[in-house]
Amino acid sequence: VGGGDAQDGGTGDPGKNRSRMTTEPPEPREAPPLHHRRPGQPVVVDVFGDSVAWTLVNYLPSYPDLDARDRTLMGCGVSRTAPFRYFGRLYPRLMPTCRRWPQIWQAAIARDNPDVAFILVGRWETMDRVLEGRWSHVGDPEFDAHLRSELDLAIRIAGGRGAHVLLATEPYNRRGEQLDGSLYPEDQPERVTAWNQLLRSVANSHPNVRVVELGQRVSPEGRFTWTAGGYQVRSDGLHLTPSGVEDWIAPWLLPQLIDAVPR
Q: What proportions of the chain, in percent to the nearest 5, are helix, strand and coil?
């Protein structure tokens, strides 16, 4: 799986082609009752996110009483503002799929009616992006307000039919190095830390949303590492490995997905 490098490329004026989306699905008038275990039925988990989430859900081993479904979108986080920079390249606009993630997620929730919605985003939220005509990034108050709004929307959609919403923290990344040996901005540890702090803060504002510390499981030393628990967990500095998911992440994560739904 590529590093989400499927966005439209090219060069352009950052003041043009801004694609910050403001259309949002309608909010429910009242929160639906949260799901309980359905006797004789597996716990249905919809996994939302980008290609990192894809590696997670597709490498999960089978597990009793669990039905994990891939609802990821390649190259798409929740931020819908552009242009942005990734891996040293300027992308002037979003893919149509990324602009429409709220509608796509909402359709998946309506189709699956999952017990759990597991959201793993953050990679695309740590990049330099144009917001309201200027370059910005996580840690800037205005950009953080934008991220909070998008994450709030993701939570409302994911929990729209009573699913228990779990937000996963992002691991530290090292997708590559610049010519001078430095990290690209999106790989700066400070940005991942800032995103995870923002994510926890947003989760705290929603009484029924839990945080899953995936970042700590994959990056247990509080920095990027190729291995964790004696297993190689990263394939390219970003995505997860099959053995890392199966042997290190799954034994820790799968019981949490089951336990998220009360009997």
A: 35, 20, 50
pLDDT, one tens digit per residue, over 19-55 is 444 445 545 457 789 999 989 999 999 999 999 999 9
Whether 135 and 182 have beta carbons less than 8 Å apart is answered as no
Q: Are 66 and 12 in contact (CB under 8 A)?
A: no
Q: Is the dihedral of CA 244, 245, 247, 250 positive or negative?
A: positive
Q: Which segments of the chain are extended strands (E)? A: 43-49, 66-70, 84-86, 89-91, 116-120, 128-131, 134-136, 164-168, 209-212, 227-228, 231-232
CA–CA distance, 176 with 239 (Å, rounded to integer): 12
* Lookup result for tokens 């190259």: 75
Task: State what percent of residues in the chain have pLDDT above 90.
Answer: 83
Tokens describing residue 8: 């439209």
H runs (alpha helix) in the chain: 51-59, 96-99, 101-112, 141-158, 189-204, 214-218, 242-244, 250-259
pLDDT cut 70: percent of the chain above it: 89
Across the range 147-163, mean pLDDT stands at 98
Task: For residue 57, give the nearest of 43, 39, 71 by alpha carbon.
Answer: 71
